[in-house]
Amino acid sequence: MNPTSTASSAPTAPAPGRWRRFLDSDLWYSFRTSPVAMAAALIAFVCIFCAVFAGWVAPHNPFDLATLELGDSRLPPAWLEGGKWTYVFGTDDQGRDILSALMYGARISLFVGVASVLLSMLIGVSLGLLSGFVGGKLDTVIMRICDVMLSFPTILVALLIDGVGRAMFPDAHETLAFTVLILSIALTKWVDYARTVRGSTMVERNKEYVQAARVIGVPPLRIMYKHVLPNVTGPVLVLSTIQIAQAIIIEATLSFLGVGVPPTSPSLGTLIRIGNDFLFSGEWWITIFPGAMLVLIALSVNLLGDWLRDALNPRLR
User: Fold this and answer.
1) According to its record, how does it sit in the membrane (predicted)?
2) What is the pTM for the complete model shown?
3) pLDDT digits (tens, 9 = 90+) for 237-247
């Protein structure tokens, strides 16, 4: 028998699946060998899980007026004198459970943060890709717009959108509040994506695979989104991870100043603003616990962003 035919007829090993390839990747190895990244991921997972499933995890519904008891208002945490284990972190001035309010408030903060980052990413990546690939006058115009947008702070943009929105839609307060937060953050943060993607695209457009695609007649739009875009997503992923934490902090700042979600659907920033009125009267838990929740979410997401930046950088491997 021919040994060549015998070797060719031998069964080949099946190709590893996507999950197996991920477990064997450098990214997963970097994650499981980094205690800081694992701890940050655990904290972020717990916070996000409690926020998303607040309706099932929270011990109370703090915004159901029928269940509120004014007699239980301003109760301290359960481990202090006068506290009740029914309200582990105490209650606010309306008798709402602080722990439950944290879960519901974090859900709103995360929604605004993720939605604004997705919108800014869509705008910034599209304009940056177009600017870096086409170049010329279009590149100059887009970059000058970026320079103009960098001169407007997020708070001023939010106040402008809020004033115009209230004048045009006086009855849509709650819907307007979410729109103001998302638009104000997105309109000031898309510039970072545009500049990052533009720089990476200007490097990629001169490489051989782009030149080969042009020679065989591939349309420029297809080259941008099918060939160039996948090669510039690494910095975008790192930037978006870090900007989620920034967007959550900006949302809390705007809500603290009153340009945010209404008190009927408070986010973490609104809870901190409400608790600030009682901070010096002894009810410190009303504002300290929402502030600690905000710090935990922002810190864990920032640490994950730092780890992802180092893991995707081939020079640090």
Assistant:
1) Multi-pass membrane protein
2) 0.82
3) 888 888 888 88
